[in-house]
Amino acid sequence: MDDVDAVQAQIARNMLTSGDWVTARLDGVVYLEKSPLIYWLIAISYKIFGAFDWAARIPVALACVALGWLTAAFGTWAFGKRAGFYAGLAVSTCIGLFLFTRILIPDVMLTATIALSMWAFLRCLDEEEKRPRMWALLMAASLGVGLILKSAIALVFPGAAASLYLVFTRQLFSPQVWRRLHPWSGLAIMLLIAVPWHVLATLRNPPYFDFTMRSVPGEYHGFLWFYFMNEQVLRFLNLRYPRDYNTVPRVYFWLFHLLWLFPWSVYFPAIAKLKFKPLDRAGQTRLLALCWTGFLLVFFTFSTTQEYYSMPCYPALALLLGSAMAEGGAWVRRGTRVLAVVAGLAGVACIAILIAVRGAPSPGDISQALSRNPGAYTLSLGHMEDLTLDSFAYLRLPLAVAAVAFLIGSIGNLRAMGHRAFLAAALMMVLFFHAARLAMVVFDPYLSSRPLATALQRAPAGNLVVDHHYYTYSSIFFYTDRTAWLLNGRFNNLVYGSYAPGAPNVFLDDAQWRDMWLGPQRCYLVVDDQKRPQFEKLAGKDAIFLVKESGGKMVLTNQALP
Fold first, then answer.
1. CB under 8 Å to 355, separation ≥6 — which residues?
2. Is 79 found in the same domain as 44?
């Protein structure tokens, strides 16, 4: 578990141990940014399996399986078995879903709730559907669940997509359509699911009603203002404080979908040949998928964006791709040949890198060969910029497996067409994901602080101080299951909660740290290895002892170990 995942995992553990399932906390500080359902699901997983890192990942893993099945079932209903299979295959084996479910974020769960609500929406409108009321209530329930997964966008995205669809099909003001959607009973179900937590969180974290547009440090306006005004309205307008996030340039945000949906993105041109007139289920689903994708991409074109923000449109694109792949045609054949070339070039590149680093040494762990680009780390894939040619000397096995995967995909798409080529591409991705998993094992000391946490657990008791920011070393908190002092860490995600009434004073400045360090009690400091000289200057070299070093980070103590 890396230092980002551990934040979510530890919040869930804090809820389980404290019994407070309403207000999230980090190091005792209220953390009001996110909806709670992912924490609840992880906590339930802990209750069943124990508080292990792998148990924290079970809800996200199950959501991935559910999304693949749901997309396949939706496609089967709309286009037939073959197209449904291809749609499920596309969403399950695309690069984006793999990359963005490596992180413990609720977006894949949100994506599943949106996909379910979109399918339920069409089932409600389908004149052949015998149980439209059941589907209407299922749609409402999925929207309610989405609200406690990711807040308002869980309602905005499917609501806007459905509204655009009704406008284009001239049904927006049709009484018959609205009767089939059962809006009032649906609203009641949605509110029944979503409202209780919002009310409890507001009551437990006053003040209740504050709608200022002013977002500055040092002010506390309660849960309701922070959760709705700061995290949604002001974030959309790029006026949120703290500004602990970055944004992907608009052009890249759009173009990156060629990568996120790879290898199936080679069939995007074939989508243009599909029929979008809503004359049957297939046409209706294609039109809805177009509205669904279009609104989401345009929405984030005018907002701040991270690479994974567009995940909720992956099922829509997969449905269009599955439909196009099942219909075949010249553009599908061309896409298969393009994929053969791209995969072949990728395989050759992997082999070339292997040859280039064949004699390169690989001492210690991979952190010694990486560059550091902290300015990029506010993007979810910012660490990709840290890679250097020398770092690939530590990745020989993953590179070899990736080369084999790409060559299998290339040969399969050169020698076959249609169904067999699609299966070859899927096999290529399965092997490539295995290569990526092997690479993550190599990166673990760099991205995670688990080796340092293990050293702390074995060391004598003492005060624990973490330098800079909770997020940077959050796996220390998870694997040791303890609180710590935060040195110069009152910023970003914890700054707002630190001004809440009754907030614990867990923050130290340099002078306070020095007094603690030079006092009689044993202390530990978790810090970046490049900052050791700074602390030696503050406290003196004679008061600094190394406990453990790993991944470019270290644990120091103020007293020699026995």
1. none
2. yes
Q: How far is CA 418 from the centre of its chain?
A: 32
Residues 121 and 174 occupy one common structural domain: yes
Give the pLDDT confidence of 57-116 residue by residue, as tens digits. 999 999 999 999 999 999 999 999 999 999 999 999 999 999 999 889 999 999 999 999
Q: What is the SS3 assignment for 212?
A: coil
The number of residues in the chain equals 562
Residue 299 lies in a domain: yes
The token pair that represents 88 in the structure block: 């499920």
Total domains present in the chain: 3
What is the token pair recorded at 481? Answer: 């299951």
- Phi/psi at 232 (nearest 5 deg)? -120, -60
From 562, 519, 512, select the one nearest 543 (Cα to Cα): 519
Domain of residue 421: give its range. Answer: 349-444
Query: pLDDT, tens digit, for every residue of 264-301?
Result: 999 999 999 999 999 999 999 999 999 999 999 999 88
Judgement on whether residues 386 and 527 belong to the same structural domain of the protein: no
Q: Round to whole Å and give the CA distance between 475 and 2.
A: 6
**What's the start-to-end Cα distance of the chain, in Å?**
30
Q: Is the pLDDT of residue 456 over 70?
A: yes
CA dihedral 474, 52, 448, 491 (to 10 degrees): -10
Q: What is the pLDDT of residues 486-523, one digit of tens each?
A: 999 988 889 999 999 999 999 999 999 999 999 999 99
C-beta atoms surrounding 134 within 10 Å: 14
CA distance 524 to 466: 8
Same domain as 458, residue 439: no
Q: What is the pTM of this model?
A: 0.94
- Same structural domain, 437 and 456: no
Residues 114 and 69 in one domain: yes
- CA 373 to CA 491: how far, in whole Å? 20
